[in-house]
Amino acid sequence: QVQLVESGGGLVQAGGSLRLSCAASGNIFSINAINNMGWYRQAPGKQRELVALIRSGGSTNYADSMKGRFIISRNNAKNTMYLQMNSLKPEDTAVYYCNVLTLGRNYWGQGTQVTVSS
User: Fold this and answer.
1) Taking 80 as the threshold, does the pLDDT of residue 114 lie above it?
2) Which tens digit of pLDDT belongs to each residue from 13-59?
3) How many CB atoms within 10 Å of residue 26?
4) How far is CA 76 from CA 33, 46, 48, 110, in A?
5) Residue 11 above 80 pLDDT?
6) CA 22/CA 34 separation, integer angstroms
7) For strand 10-13 and strand 112-117, is the pairing parallel, antiparallel, or unpaired?
């Protein structure tokens, strides 16, 4: 079992920045076997969508609308993933979820609210 705890969400004005964190804990074998880590978001009335993904080797993928504004990173020693969000727009308002894939299973955090005011 893996537990994920997100933090860093909040209210920010358009053009501002936020940094989200996701800390993983739990079964040591599952933690050490974490492959992909990713951030997803879900806005009211919309489906959950991928924001960014980072693999164990460090390669990354971003949704087109986040490229150049968001940066995903991970600290394997601390079992923590980050999402630096810059130039935030009102349309970035959503609940942001942390996700990890390990030993063939997906785990989700409880989500953290990001609200961008215009």
Assistant:
1) yes
2) 999 999 999 999 988 777 778 889 999 999 999 999 999 999 988 89
3) 14
4) 11, 32, 26, 21
5) yes
6) 13
7) parallel
* CA 100/CA 88 separation, integer angstroms: 24
Q: Across the strands, what pairs with 11? A: 115
Q: Is the dihedral of CA 64, 68, 72, 75 positive or negative?
A: positive
Q: In whole angstroms, what is the distance from residue 63 CA to residue 55 CA?
A: 15
Q: What is the pLDDT of residue 60?
A: 96
Cβ-contact 6, 112 below 8 angstroms: yes
Helix (H) or strand (E) holding 30: helix 28-32
Task: Report the DSSP beta bridge partners of residue 41.
Answer: 49, 96
- Name residue, tokens 């949704």: 63
pLDDT at 54: 95
In this structure, what token pair is assigned to residue 10?
A: 């909040």
pLDDT of 56: 86
- Whole-angstrom distance, CA of residue 13 vs CA of residue 16: 6
